[in-house]
Write a structure and sequence with these properties.
With 328 residues, this protein is of the alpha/beta class. The protein has 9 helices and 17 strands. The strands form 4 sheets. Strands 1, 2, 3, 4, 5, 6 and 17 form a 7-stranded mixed sheet that branches. It has a 5-stranded parallel sheet with strand order 8-15-9-10-11. It has a 3-stranded antiparallel sheet with strand order 12-13-14, with no helix packed on it. The protein is elongated. The N terminus is likely disordered.
Length: 328
């Protein structure tokens, strides 16, 4: 009965996943293995593209982001999953029924029963010359992702101007990987309590403005301060300001976090449902602090919940059709 109902009212997809990085591909894999029709729409601009390697991901030691995503896309080949290179510009509910219409920049429209937002974040870097050029190699953000490779080396934690406490917190975290950590506040002053905690952790402090990062042949050599003084370091960890890569959730009216380090994150229930019916969110779209492996794991759990939700819809529809077919 369910199969007949699906053939009669078949949408383009059971689920459209928007975003084809680790969370999006994992959601598609889990749904595909549940015999669901899935479309993944991605514009080919993953957040981790500048990174030289993906670390702290079990079974993927040293893989490049591009290689990991290529393997993920190849793994979908056995399932009813279509990969589309495009960018979604609009999502809206169909005039009749419970379907959603997903429109791309190229003007294509997909009809679906569920939308999965896996669009992720964009990192806004400190405004220091040299940082963008070295981003992903010798300038990184997460010690859990990149700290092991530079453990025991002279390291710097560069704060984001106007956000000194976040710089302090990150420098304290980084001190676990090296006893030679210096916090660069880039002109911000610290209070006595902040300095006391840093001193206890063995973290040095430099409040002078940073002029630039000095590199040679694409590798970091030193930090140059406003007075011309150099500071040789192996790597610079930075505080970033993050924002959502798209405004699709806001356009839909999904509730989102208003302030704090997770500002802009899409709010969901424990299963991944947003405040808008039929729209789900996963990965850093809803939990910005997730590591790569965490984003994939979260997406798998959300996809299981989506499948269960679709199954309940299937069963309810089949039951209604069965009742209407009985002789009166």
């Amino acid at each position: 009965m369910v199969a007949a109902m699906d053939q009669l009212n078949a949408p383009d997809a059971d689920a459209v996943v928007i975003g084809g990085s680790l969370a999006g591909l994992q959601a598609a894999l889990t749904l595909g293995r549940a015999c669901r029709r899935v479309v993944v729409i991605d514009d080919g601009r993953p957040r981790n593209a500048p990174a030289a390697h993906v670390h702290n991901f079990l079974g993927q030691h040293g893989s490049t982001p591009a290689a990991l995503l290529e393997a993920g896309r190849a793994a979908l080949g056995d399932y009813d999953v279509a990969l589309e290179r495009d960018r979604v510009v609009r999502i809206e509910h169909a005039p009749v029924g419970d379907r959603l219409h997903v429109t791309s920049r190229d003007g294509r429209v997909w009809q679906t029963r569920a939308v999965v937002l896996a669009t992720g974040l964009v990192d806004e870097l400190p405004d220091v010359p040299g940082v963008p050029e070295l981003w992903g190699r010798d300038v990184v953000a997460c010690p859990h992702c990149h700290g092991w490779e530079v453990r025991g080396e002279p390291l710097a934690q560069l704060s984001l101007r106007g956000m000194p406490q976040r710089g302090v917190d990150r420098a304290l975290l980084l001190s676990r990987w090296s006893s030679e950590v210096v916090l660069l506040t880039d002109g911000d002053e610290l209070d006595a309590a902040q300095r006391e905690r840093l001193h206890a952790a063995g973290v040095a402090v430099q409040t002078q403005r940073v002029r630039r990062l000095v590199s040679h042949d694409g590798r970091l050599r030193s930090i140059e301060f406003a007075d011309g003084t150099p500071l040789p370091v192996r790597a610079v960890f930075v505080v970033t300001r993050q924002r959502q890569q798209t405004y699709l959730a806001q356009q839909l009216g999904c509730r989102h976090t208003e302030a704090g380090t997770a500002a802009g994150a899409v709010e969901t229930d424990s299963a991944g449902r947003t405040s808008v019916p039929g729209v789900w969110a996963t990965g850093t779209t809803t939990v910005p602090a997730l590591l790569a492996i965490g984003a994939a794991g979260h997406a798998s759990s959300v996809a299981v919940a989506i499948h269960n939700d679709l199954l309940e819809q299937d069963l309810a529809t089949a039951a209604a059709q069965s009742r209407s077919a009985r002789p009166q």
